[in-house]
Amino acid sequence: DTEVTQTPKHLVMGMTNKKSLKCEQHMGHRAMYWYKQKAKKPPELMFVYSYEKLSINESVPSRFSPECPNSSLLNLHLHALQPEDSALYLCASSHQGTIYFGEGSWLTVV
Amino acid sequence: GENVEQHPSTLSVQEGDSAVIKCTYSDSASNYFPWYKQELGKGPQLIIDIRSNVGEKKDQRIAVTLNKTAKHFSLHITETQPEDSAVYFCAARETDSWGKFQFGAGTQVVVTP
To answer: Using CA atoms, how far apart are residues A34 and A75, in angstroms rounded to an integer?
Structure first.
């Protein structure tokens, strides 16, 4: 089983809203990731958590705030987003270097 | 840093024919090369991968070949079916780089009946 579960599947938020994306995996993977994907483009790495500690932040604006409450959960807190932040947000986890993606959360900022 | 080029950007094949997608990478330290299939509205799904100590790997109708000397790797799909229609991404990763994959730009594959 290589399942990464993301909620919600779709989210529409205003530029002044605060919302969160959630990700869960029960495969015992110790690395978890957030990627952003725009239409017709490959995924772009945002954050990497290794053993529940933030190990990589790809210079992501502070309006995106990741959180890893435990080894199975990963959140992405969103605040004061811009319309250009509308995209598919993908969570992933990895085992022995192999990355498994979730189905993504479609975010629309209005 | 790593740079991955993927060709072609679109590929139209007749059902039953073979499809080949090629990627080249720049960093000789890269040692892991996965391929992902992304259907419309879904997340990327790992379909096959290869590590640098292997030259070829096959899984049913899908195969991947790696030429370390030339720094390129290819995805081969035989006996294509309409459900193979999707965007395919290649990627390359260095050892111990924690998810810093460099993805290719993607190939839109359309299989026509």
So the answer is: 9
